[in-house]
TrEMBL record:
Keywords: Oxidoreductase, Signal. InterPro entries: NAD(P)-bd_dom_sf, SDR_fam. It comes from the Eukaryota. Residues 1-18 form the signal peptide. It comes from Poecilia reticulata (Guppy). This is Dehydrogenase/reductase (SDR family) member 13b.1. Belongs to the short-chain dehydrogenases/reductases (SDR) family. GO terms for molecular function: oxidoreductase activity. Pfam families: adh_short.
Length: 316
């Protein structure tokens, strides 16, 4: 009897915790997007796919920028069906290849007259190298998006008011950027263990915030604004490359403590749609509100240095 009372108590507490703390706030913007075009990178699954569905429901023309043709085309059918919109297009983009980023941008600029919102959502949690020899998490999570944004910036300016939304993570809190190491090794730090993977992931997510900080400065005087964000802890496929044991442990914790992809897309939607946040350009958001961050994530010198080294790496 005592055990049953304890179990019931535990589940009630878990439910209350989930409803009040885990679920988080929702985007309250009623903005409609008819006639507007949005790109969402990594939108064949997880937060990106849900974000694409929500934006298509609001009338946007949504470009699913995904690396796998097969997964991208399957997602295209799902996004069309779930949003009830036909204004959804798949275009191939592999952020682990600067050539692919350039050919995506060329194709997009040739075929699509507008760009109103660019959502740099794709992310990877895996040690490896990109096709150009950069660390995989640096290359995909930061460098590919850096190049993509720069190649699309003129179109965003022409279509202003427009926005760039960079999906970062609270994992940036344990990140650092060692520029000497980056310069020599084209990666964020050495290591191949499980712990190293999470540390390098944190470094790459710090890059997302520094990039947004510098981008906002460079966009002053234009009608383009930009934001970085933490979506919360979300049940997605992000852990898919970890060992079975790690996945088993994490999945069981996640069931209680993590948000659904729909809940996890709310801060992205807030940054993309909320009216009146333009004066917060360059800031970091979490739970649908601007948040204060550590000095290392709003360091002017580091942001400028990251911008310059990224330009050099991309050859722009
Ligand atoms: N889930 C969380 O708890 C959490 C927390 C904080 C921040 N985030 C951030 O949220 C974003 C979305 O992650 P998620 O949780 O939705 O993960 P996910 O389910 O694993 O989705 C990641 C997406 O990125 C794509 N991607 C990976 N490598 C790519 C590449 N080389 N080129 C193009 N696309 C690529 C994936 O495509 P494939 O399916 O083809 O691999 C997939 O569509 C990421 O930036 C992540 O860092 C997530």
């Amino acid at each position: 009897m005592y055990t049953i009372v304890l179990l019931v108590g535990f589940f009630i507490a878990a439910y209350i915790f989930h409803e009040t703390t885990v679920k988080g706030k929702s985007c309250t913007s009623k903005a409609k997007l008819h006639g507007k075009t949005v790109i969402v990178t990594g939108s064949n699954t997880g937060i990106g796919k849900t974000t694409a569905i929500e934006l298509a429901k609001r009338g946007a023309r949504v470009i699913l920028a995904c690396r796998s043709k097969q997964r991208g085309e399957a997602a295209l059918q799902d996004v069309k069906r779930e949003s009830g919109s036909n204004q959804v297009v798949f275009m191939q983009l592999d952020l682990a290849s600067l050539k692919s980023v350039r050919s995506f941008a060329e194709n997009f600029l040739k075929t699509e007259p507008r760009l109103d919102i660019l959502i740099n959502n794709a992310g990877v949690l895996l040690i490896g190298r990109t096709k150009d020899g950069f660390g995989l998490m640096f290359g995909v999570n930061h460098l590919g998006h850096f190049l993509l944004t720069n190649l699309l910036l003129d179109r965003l300016k022409e279509c202003g008011p427009s926005r760039v939304v960079n999906v970062s993570s609270a994992a940036h809190n344990w990140g650092t950027v060692d520029f000497d190491y980056l310069n020599t090794h084209r990666d964020l730090r050495v290591g191949t263990t499980w712990l190293d993977t999470f540390r390098i992931y944190g470094d790459s997510k710090l890059c997302n915030i520094l990039f947004t900080h510098e981008l906002a400065k460079r966009l002053k005087g234009t009608k383009v604004t930009c934001y970085s964000l933490h979506p919360g802890s979300i049940l997605t496929e992000l852990q898919r490359n970890q060992s079975t044991t790690v996945q088993l442990i994490l999945k069981n914790i996640e069931r209680f403590l993590f948000k659904t992809p729909l809940q996890g897309s709310q801060t992205t939607l807030h940054c993309a749609l909320q009216e009146g946040i333009e004066h917060l350009s360059g800031r970091y958001f979490s739970n649908c509100a601007a948040k204060n961050i550590f000095a290392k994530a709003r360091d002017d010198a580091a942001s400028k240095k990251l911008w310059e080294i990224s330009e050099r790496f991309c050859g722009i």
